[in-house]
């Protein structure tokens, strides 16, 4: 009986060695997903803020600045070419909508799942408030 227990101690270590990589990938995946979820929320909020500024001020430069100011936690920071404002100016009459889209290449934290993933945040608002 005693020899049988001693033989099974090594089996536990081998089974643990098989499971550790799977658990490590699972933990890294959870961390990367959580980070991407947080970045997506930041992008959506920044795009909504840019759409609000564009709808009220009718100034694409101010809308881009509002997007940059609403996303200070992103690293690397959002740049002007990543922000699309359509249309470029709100019409004086009518009920047109303005759409602000932020395309952001989010780098992965660990690099284990690749270099980056493209995320998009969009905000739409009626012109002139």
UniProtKB/TrEMBL annotation:
InterPro entries: TadE-like_dom (IPR012495). The keyword Transmembrane helix applies. Residues 10-52 form the TadE-like domain. The keyword Transmembrane applies. The chain crosses the membrane at residues 12-31. It comes from the Bacteria. Keywords: Membrane, Transmembrane, Transmembrane helix. This is TadE-like protein.
């Amino acid at each position: 009986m005693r020899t049988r227990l001693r033989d099974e101690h090594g089996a536990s270590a081998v089974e643990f060695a098989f499971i550790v990589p799977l658990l490590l990938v699972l933990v890294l995946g959870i961390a990367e997903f959580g980070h991407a979820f947080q970045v997506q929320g930041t992008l959506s909020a920044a795009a909504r803020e840019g759409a609000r500024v564009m709808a009220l001020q009718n100034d694409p430069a101010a809308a881009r600045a509002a997007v940059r100011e609403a996303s200070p936690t992103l690293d690397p920071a959002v740049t002007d070419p990543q922000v699309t404002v359509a249309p470029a100016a709100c019409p004086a009459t009518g009920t047109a909508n303005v759409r602000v889209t932020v395309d952001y290449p989010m780098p992965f934290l660990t690099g284990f799942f690749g270099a980056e993933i493209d995320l998009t945040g969009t905000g739409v608002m009626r012109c002139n408030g």
